[in-house]
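Quick one, probably user error.
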């Protein structure tokens, strides 16, 4: 408590003002927390002094709110790159010049009381393991804590996160008696998808029933947890490579929603062999054909490729060759490059034809691949166990060393 209080005084988090009778003075409270290391052992005991903000009335006592979110800052000078990832009081710093990083840490330490933890090994629940082949990011402790919260630490593991023969709907069985528990677990699973793209499809599907979960939804959620029980150490491997080739895999599942017949879009983006971006989402409108559903997904993937490419340009990494966009629907590929098909697709919004403009400018190269080679399949539909297990290694999902 004394360390926390002195840090607040040093950083001048407040200043004293004369008291008057018209002031509304807020109370305060000490919050105590045990911080753990990635292996579960105790790191330190932490105290935090907080104001009782709930005693204020919105629109009367305050007008602005702040929600902490991860922010990325980068600076490039004299050919050197410096990157900072900031989340409240947790900071991750990297760059291509060790001396510049040390200089920044010393400068910040003169203003703030910093605790330098050395090379990254645990950050916001994500563990980093340095291997000979690269760096592996996983969330083993996070998974263990999640299983404990769900009272499933001793459950039997399974081989896939879903039953490929089951399609979930809103009115699907009796209501679950503890909807708060369901929302809490599914919300925690959403954060886990940062390193586990193999559960992204099912977590997004479960998130569509947060308002009124049923027993069947909860059973489907427990199946995801059972998969995690047997794969808690699995994570994403990032490997060094010499070729800066950006590739995207686009797929769609037409009329996959039983409730509104909207289709599902999914994509995954690779830089070399490394999976760097992926998404699964229900489309905003009902597609009138499988070609339209595939084309909408193609447009979303193309936009992601352009954004990633612009991000790397800002970081000083130039990707000269066109981004490759893989799709297993020949009709959608034809729409992307052949204006003759335009008459059939007047009902599709103009922004979808954004893909065609990218193809014309040689920024995106749309190519066909066979459905069995479509990696985005794992993000758009429930797959048989054999196909699910075949696709996962292609995402560079590996088990961390003991």
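Nope, works fine. Designed sequence:
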């Amino acid at each position: 408590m004394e360390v926390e209080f002195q840090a607040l005084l040093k950083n001048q988090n407040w200043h004293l003002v004369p008291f008057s009778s018209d002031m509304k003075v807020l109370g305060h409270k000490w919050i105590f927390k045990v911080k753990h290391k990635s292996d579960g052992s105790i790191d330190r005991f932490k105290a935090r002094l907080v104001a009782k903000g709930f005693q204020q009335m919105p629109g009367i006592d305050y007008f602005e709110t702040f929600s902490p979110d991860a922010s990325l800052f980068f600076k490039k000078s004299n050919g050197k790159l410096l990157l900072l990832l900031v989340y409240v009081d947790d900071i991750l710093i990297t760059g291509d010049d060790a001396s510049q990083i040390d200089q920044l840490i010393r400068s910040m330490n003169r203003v703030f009381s910093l605790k330098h933890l050395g090379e990254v090994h645990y950050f916001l629940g994500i563990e980093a393991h340095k291997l000979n082949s690269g760096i592996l990011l996983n969330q083993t402790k996070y998974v263990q804590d999640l299983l404990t919260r769900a009272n499933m630490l001793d459950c039997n593991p399974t081989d896939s996160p879903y039953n490929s023969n089951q399609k979930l709907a809103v009115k699907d069985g009796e209501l679950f008696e503890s909807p708060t528990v369901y929302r809490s677990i599914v919300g925690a699973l959403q954060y886990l998808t940062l390193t586990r793209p193999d559960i992204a499809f099912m977590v997004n599907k479960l998130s569509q029933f947060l308002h009124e979960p049923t027993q069947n939804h909860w059973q489907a959620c427990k199946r995801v947890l059972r998969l995690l029980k047997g794969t808690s150490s699995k994570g994403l491997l990032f490997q060094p490579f010499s070729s800066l080739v950006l590739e995207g895999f686009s797929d769609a599942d037409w009329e996959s929603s039983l409730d509104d017949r909207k289709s599902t879009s999914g994509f995954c983006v690779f830089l070399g062999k490394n999976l760097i971006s992926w998404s699964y989402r229900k489309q905003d409108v009902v597609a009138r054909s499988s070609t339209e559903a595939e084309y909408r997904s193609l447009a979303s993937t193309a936009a992601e490729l352009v954004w990633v490419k612009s991000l790397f340009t800002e970081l000083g990494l130039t990707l000269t060759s066109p981004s490759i966009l893989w799709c297993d629907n020949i009709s959608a590929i034809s729409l992307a490059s052949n204006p003759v098909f335009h008459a059939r697709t007047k009902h599709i919004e103009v922004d979808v034809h954004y893909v065609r403009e990218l193809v014309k400018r040689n920024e995106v190269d749309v190519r066909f691949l066979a459905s069995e080679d479509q990696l985005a399949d794992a993000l758009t539909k429930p797959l048989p166990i054999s196909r699910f297990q075949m696709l996962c290694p292609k995402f560079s999902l590996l088990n961390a060393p003991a």
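Residues 30 and 49 are 5 Å apart (CA to CA).
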